[in-house]
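Supplementary Methods, section 5.1.

A reviewer requested that the exact input to the structure prediction be made available. We therefore reproduce it here, unchanged from the version used in the analyses.
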Amino acid sequence: MKRKIIMTIVLTLSLLMMFFPWFGGAEGIQEVYGLVLLKNPVSLTCILLIYIGIWTDCGKNSEVIGVIGFCGVLVMQIYEFLTWHILTITGHFDLELSMRLSHKEFYIALACIVICLAIYRKIFIRYTDE
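The structure derived from this sequence is encoded token-by-token as follows.
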């Protein structure tokens, strides 16, 4: 139970990075917050899968569900990074523009999800191997 609570807190803190601006021009002008990730139903499903993976006791199946959820959130963050400007600014795919107009908070959020995945794997692999 202790590991589930710890993992839930770590994940929730990581997801709080969505409340910061991820993309945009100058700070305070035309910023796109990480909450844009929640507009995509795939992202919501993946976040739900993570919580299901944490709180269910199905052995390896719970671990796999959680890892799928984490990978899905990571992929959706990268998808938003690559496509956020297409409908609003440029109308076409531009990797250089995506990199230039990404705030440090996006990269921190990306790192937080990767760290959460590593913590999740460490906690749940150790738990299922015992």
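The radius of gyration is 16 Å. These observations are discussed further in the main text.
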